[in-house]
Specification:
The structure is a homodimer of 219-residue chains. The first copy, chain A, has nine helices and eleven strands. The first copy, chain A, is α/β, with parallel strands linked by helices and 219 residues long. Chain A folds into two domains: 71 residues, Winged helix-like DNA-binding domain superfamily/Winged helix DNA-binding domain (Arc Repressor Mutant, subunit A, Orthogonal Bundle), CATH 1.10.10.10; 113 residues, NAD(P)-binding Rossmann-like Domain (Rossmann fold, 3-Layer(aba) Sandwich), CATH 3.40.50.720. In chain A, strands 8-5-4-9-10-11 form a six-stranded parallel beta sheet, with helices on both faces. In chain A, 47% of the residues are buried. Chain A binds a DNA duplex (22 and 22 nucleotides) through helix 1, helix 3 and strand 2.
DNA sequence: GACTGTGAAGTAGTTCACAGCT
DNA sequence: AGCTGTGAACTACTTCACAGTC
């Protein structure tokens, strides 16, 4: 009930899932929810849910459950989602254009406000609402549009360069879609999504038919 | 050096990364590689690399390192990547079309051979090389094209339905891009990628400026 | 001397089980 | 009675440290 400081990474990785579930519960007019119900909806275990929420200094009520709206605020607050966070996509190839168009980002509070590329032939072309800008404009765009998160959607060979540009333009959070390891200063938060990797992991478990794949990643 | 049975999930999740690095090393004519070098290239620690590879019954040579081509085969074999694995994408919306077009899948051995949708208005339209087929044709397509993996790219509300269709069409490996929890029989390998979730996790670490985000997920 | 393979120690994450509130 | 919050036990993963091989 007090508010302990350090939230373990495994818990942080589940917060977006709690958020999603709580948004749905709020829509369907539920005002309280128990850890058991949250566990069912998210595919977790009830004890884990309670422990996770306890790190937020959650306000559950014994005998009753958690207040949906209150908890929703707590989770949003913990994730730092109190204001929309503008995203810039670097790389206007296939993947970059798709990401810039993907409505799921805007819906969840991450509007894609800019799309840049280093290739002058691509600069000026339109992708949905956006016009492709030159990568050199990054520092100006970051300031002008208040960008917070950079998405790297360039080929592996230039991913490190894209990351460096984003960091020197002042961004502190990067999501890398290129299938290669990119390094950044320790103050910069960095995650990677490798779509083909997911298929390879699936391939492993399908291959080993019978061995069921564990649920979802943590860390 | 013997070949112990159960590969821990955290190790499985890193195998694709080793694979990628080994492919690059092979291209650049390296014939051996040490655990330390692999660790550098992947952003790991050398002891972890050695332990991971030991689960494959790896053939490292003390004093020398690992044979690049031999290890490449071992990893490919462990991942079950000895033959190409056909993929079907369910959902021809924004995301589904982008995934069907994404060249990274084919490049890594997962050709997208079919794209289906339940909406008759979308059936017959073209996306890259593919013509959108009706979701009812799934069981036939699975047999005809030898599909192995299903990718779910429909809205949350219909994700469970899409999963059920894929499972009853005989697929044993599903990748879910919808931001909701989907259940499947235990024999079916199932993973989820939630793009907005990654941004939310980044938001957390950016918010808590100074707390550096740990590297990459395992499990 | 360089580098692997692996027990053992250390750390993180999960689950149990129950005391404590409503 | 129902459900939270949390120490304690357990399980998984990582890292150390060193014996063993080339």
């Amino acid at each position: 009930m007090s508010r302990p400081r350090r939230i373990p990474h495994a818990t942080v990785a589940r917060l977006p899932e709690y958020l999603r579930i709580l948004v749905e519960l709020a829509h369907s007019q539920h005002d309280t929810v128990s850890s058991g119900r949250l566990a069912d909806l998210g595919g977790f275990n009830a004890a884990k849910v309670r422990k996770d929420l306890s790190y937020l200094g959650s306000y559950g009520t014994r005998g009753v459950g958690y207040d949906v709206l209150g908890l929703l605020d707590e989770v949003r607050e913990a994730l730092g989602l109190t204001a929309a966070r503008g995203v810039v996509v670097v790389g206007a190839g296939n993947l970059g254009r798709a990401l810039a168009n993907y409505s799921g980002f805007e819906e969840r509070g991450f509007p894609v406000l800019a799309l840049v590329d280093a290739d002058v032939d691509k600069v000026g072309t339109r992708v949905g609402q956006l016009e492709v800008r030159h990568a050199d404009e990054l520092p100006a765009l970051v300031i002008e549009l208040g960008l917070r998160i950079g998405v790297i959607a360039v080929p592996s060979a230039t991913a490190q360069d894209a990351a460096d540009r984003l960091v020197s333009a002042g961004l502190k959070a990067l999501l890398n879609f290129a299938p290669s390891h990119v390094s950044a200063p320790p103050k910069v938060a960095m995650r990677r999504v490798d779509l083909a990797r997911e298929l390879q992991v699936l391939s492993f478990y399908e291959h080993q038919l019978g061995t069921s794949a564990p649920g979802e990643p943590a860390r």
